[in-house]
Amino acid sequence: QVQLVESGGGLVQAGGSLRLSCAASRRTFSAYAMGWFRQAPGKEREFVAAIRWSGGATYYADSVKGRFTISRDSAKNTVYLQMNSLKPEDTAVYYCAADRDAVYGTYYYDKLTEYDYWGQGPQVTVSS
Fold first, then answer.
1. How far is residue 5's CA from residue 120's CA, in Å, rounded to a whole number?
2. Distances from the Cα of 15 to the Cαs of 29, 68, 76, 118, in angstroms?
3. Average pLDDT over residues 62-89
4. Which among 8, 14, 51, 85 has most CB atoms closer than 10 A?
5. What pLDDT is recorded for position 28?
6. What sections of 5-128 are H helices per DSSP?
7. Structural contact between residues 4 and 97, judged by C-beta atoms closer than 8 angstroms
8. How would you label 27-46 residue by residue, b for 16+ Cβ within 10 Å and e otherwise?
9. Dihedral (C-alpha) 53, 48, 112, 115: value to the nearest 10 degrees?
10. DSSP character for 109?
11. Which helix (H) or strand (E) covers residue 23, if one does?
């Protein structure tokens, strides 16, 4: 079992930046991939970004491409989401997720069902 603990949410003005962190409770192996999803009030949870632990390949939703950057620190078992040029429509609860066997078969990085473990989700609020 892997526990994911997120931090870094908060309130920011439009155009500002925030960095979310997601720390895994134990070492994540090379087979893992990590993702960030978000859920706004009244909407379904949607994919934001993902990264393969081995090799570091990254994937982004079109809505955040060029503004958000996902990265990982293997020594700290932590994945980050740097969010720049934030917009009011980025307001949501952001969830970190881990896929324990992403290297086996096709990695559907944007599918909720791909992921095995989920964090609690920090709130990100962007004011206009």
1. 7
2. 36, 12, 29, 28
3. 96
4. 51
5. 66
6. none
7. yes
8. ebeeebbbbbbbeeeeeebe
9. 20
10. T
11. strand 18-24
